[in-house]
């Protein structure tokens, strides 16, 4: 039997290990840290990198933004009064910034970490599709290289896990393989992608804007527009996936003999099972549709109902990260894992309006006036043409009528016209950003991921503990009884 298929024990791997967790305040990182504290109390140390103004505020962020969450209620119940001692012994909060050399860590602490850290997991990212280009380039592209450089200085680091996204593939269709991007590779065949040149373009643009004393909002919009333009120039649909793809290139090109794991999750949703079903925070990609519909604000759904949406619960993504660490530590190679459901348990878009209607007709959301919001079956728009027709009938024509009335009334309705116009532009912008995912026809090959799933030690305990097989999910049950109730509780 090859070493690839040898059984691994995640618990044995975590025993006495020191792990640096980057982006520790994020949704996925929170679940990662909670899981380790709950199931692997013999871990030696978790260094949690948080960006803050000083050590005290970084610690305060940990107490407020991480430990203070509902997510930790199971850990608190498990350890009771001993949790404080466990946290004190196992957790070191590190004030740092991945955009800086040596991650901006204080010299004395950096010295300790260089001698102690065994593994680094990068969960830091800005996930806004239209993020400022300078910000996205700093966090998603150049930040991972700074982390890799720090990893090379660490004496004992045997594994660097970089969490990317499955959608670095852009708008590809068909079977999408777990293969790396070469430095400078593009999706549309353009051969001039140079990350250093991108950095220079950003700096030159910022310098130009400073010279003309452009106001902050102008600078922000210029940076957003620049990111989208550069992404589309090379074949990616938005700034987020473009800068994440370049981040993969940076760590892949420069890893040398570091064992590198690239985790490419698809759309991450609320927890399936642990620490309890339905934990989530913030409005994620598909959740904006459920929130808008449940609150009575969304009257139509745009998308091909036969297209597949690749969705994966957050606890399963975390489990795949932990298993990949145990499987690949010390292997001195680059391995890519698609963590998704489209290959083994495909979910068609038609499911979303069905489960939303099923849930909100039986359990309507109650608004601030304590009145239940009644929902109707949503109107399905299955093409961009039908969307534009819908917008024309319901919004553009009424706007023209309002504009004529405004002129007759000597511009008394100016504010109404501008507000209406702004709402239409916002809807069009959102559709432009999300359209590639509403009409996405790719399926993510997860052969590598399936392999490590089979490597988990078949003791029963670890198979149950580190589950991430999408086939165990019943989508109707998950959305109606877990995900949507979680959204209503934690997001609405």
Written account of the structure:
With 492 residues, this protein is of the alpha/beta class. The chain is built from 18 helices and 13 strands. The strands form four sheets. It has a seven-stranded parallel beta sheet with strand order 3-2-1-4-5-7-11, sandwiched between helices. A two-stranded parallel sheet has the order 6-13. Helix 14 runs antiparallel to helix 15. The N and C termini lie far apart (51 Å). The model has no long low-confidence stretch (mean pLDDT 91).
Offer a few descriptive terms.
globular, alpha/beta, 492 residues, 13 strands, two-stranded parallel sheet, single chain, seven-stranded parallel sheet, 18 helices
Whole-number mean pLDDT? 91
Largest sheet: 7 strands, parallel
Helix content: 40-55%
State the shape. globular
- Rg from Cα: 24 Å
Total number of helices: 18
Percentage beta strand: 5-15%
Q: How many angstroms separate the termini?
A: 51 Å
How are the strands of the biggest sheet laid out side by side? Answer: 3-2-1-4-5-7-11
Helix/strand/pairing category: alpha/beta
The tally of strands reads 13
Unreliable runs, pLDDT <50, ≥5 residues?
Answer: none
Secondary structure layout:
Layout lengths: L9 H5 L3 E5 L4 H13 L5 E6 L4 H13 L5 H7 L3 H8 E5 L11 H10 L2 E4 L10 H21 L5 E5 L10 E3 L18 H17 L4 H18 L5 H16 L5 E6 L1 E3 L17 H8 L5 E3 L8 E3 H15 L5 E6 L11 H12 L16 E3 L2 H25 L5 H25 L3 E3 L2 H9 L5 H5 L9 H16 L2
Parallel strand pairs: 1-2, 1-4, 2-3, 4-5, 5-7, 6-13, 7-11, 8-10, 9-12
């Amino acid at each position: 039997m090859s070493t690839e298929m040898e059984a691994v024990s995640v618990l044995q791997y975590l025993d006495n290990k020191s792990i640096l967790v980057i982006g520790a305040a994020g949704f996925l990182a929170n679940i990662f840290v909670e899981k380790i504290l709950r199931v692997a109390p013999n871990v030696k140390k978790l260094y949690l990198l948080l960006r803050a103004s000083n050590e005290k505020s970084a610690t305060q962020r940990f107490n407020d933004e991480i430990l203070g969450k509902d997510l930790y209620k199971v850990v608190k119940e498990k350890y009771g009064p001993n949790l404080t001692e466990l946290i004190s012994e196992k957790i070191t909060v590190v004030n740092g910034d991945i955009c800086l050399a040596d991650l901006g860590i204080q010299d004395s602490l950096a010295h300790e970490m260089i001698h102690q850290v065994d593994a680094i997991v990068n969960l830091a990212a800005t996930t806004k599709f239209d993020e400022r280009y300078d910000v996205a380039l700093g966090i998603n592209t150049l930040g991972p290289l700074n982390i890799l450089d720090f990893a090379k200085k660490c004496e004992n680091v045997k594994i660097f896990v970089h969490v990317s996204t499955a959608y670095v593939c852009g708008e590809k269709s068909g079977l999408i393989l777990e293969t790396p991007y070469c430095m400078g590779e593009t999706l549309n065949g353009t051969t001039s992608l140079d990350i250093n040149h991108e950095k220079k373009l950003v700096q030159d643009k910022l310098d130009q804007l400073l010279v003309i004393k452009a106001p902050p909002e102008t600078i922000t919009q210029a940076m957003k527009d620049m990111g989208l333009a550069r992404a589309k120039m090379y074949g990616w649909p938005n700034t987020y996936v473009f800068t994440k793809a370049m981040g993969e290139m940076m760590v892949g090109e420069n890893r040398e003999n570091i064992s590198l794991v690239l985790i490419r999750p698809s759309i991450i949703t609320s927890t399936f099972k642990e620490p309890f079903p339905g934990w989530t925070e913030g409005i994620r990609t598909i959740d904006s549709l459920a929130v808008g519909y449940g609150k009575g604000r969304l009257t139509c759904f745009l998308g091909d109902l036969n297209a597949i949406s690749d969705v994966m619960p957050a606890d399963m993504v975390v489990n795949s990260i932990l298993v990949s660490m145990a499987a690949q530590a010390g292997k001195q190679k680059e391995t890519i894992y698609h963590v998704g459901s489209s290959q083994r348990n495909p979910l068609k878009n038609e499911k979303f309006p069905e489960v939303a209607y099923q849930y909100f007709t039986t359990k309507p959301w109650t608004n601030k006036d304590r009145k239940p919001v009644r929902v109707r079956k949503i109107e399905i728009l299955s093409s961009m043409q039908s969307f534009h027709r819908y917008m024309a009938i319901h919004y553009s024509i009424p706007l023209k009528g309002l504009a004529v009335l405004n002129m007759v009334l000597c511009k008394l309705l100016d504010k109404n016209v501008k507000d209406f116009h702004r709402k239409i532009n916002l809807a069009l912008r959102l559709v432009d950003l999300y359209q590639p995912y509403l009409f996405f026809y790719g399926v993510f090959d997860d052969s590598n991921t399936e392999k490590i799933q089979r490597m988990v030690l078949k003791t029963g305990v670890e198979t149950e503990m580190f589950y991430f097989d999408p086939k165990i999910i019943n989508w109707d049950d998950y959305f109606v009884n877990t995900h949507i109730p979680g959204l209503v509780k934690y997001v609405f």
